[in-house]
Predict the structure of Ribonuclease P protein component.
Amino acid sequence: MKKKNRIKKNEDFQKVFKHGKSMANRQFVIYMLGQPEEKEFRLGLSVSKKIGNAVTRNRIKRLVRQVFLEEKDSLKTGIDYIVIARKPASEMDYHEVKSSLLHLFRKTKVHRARPQRENSIKNT
């Protein structure tokens, strides 16, 4: 993930926490704040030490980043996202993490409708 797509500063995190909207499921909490002047989205990650050791925390962050990278074309731009991992996320594999985050994307309506494939249209 590019540097311009990351949220690193505490003041940026606090701004999203105070003024953004949040949605949660059992594994993740996602905070979102619109930034209309931005052309792309930015992502901040928070994984507590309560979740596990450094290896576990970094693994969760890698998986979340990968999901955002794969879904970047279908996510709305101009939004700051902060993802907070909860304890059950430490035992999940990639597909479970992706499924959980896609569930949150649908709940928050940040997932753009994907264009239908031509093959599925031409089934006559």
Summary: The two ends are 41 Å apart (CA to CA). Confidence is low (pLDDT under 50) at residues 115-120. Residues 3-112 form a domain with the Ribosomal Protein S5; domain 2 fold (CATH 3.30.230.10).
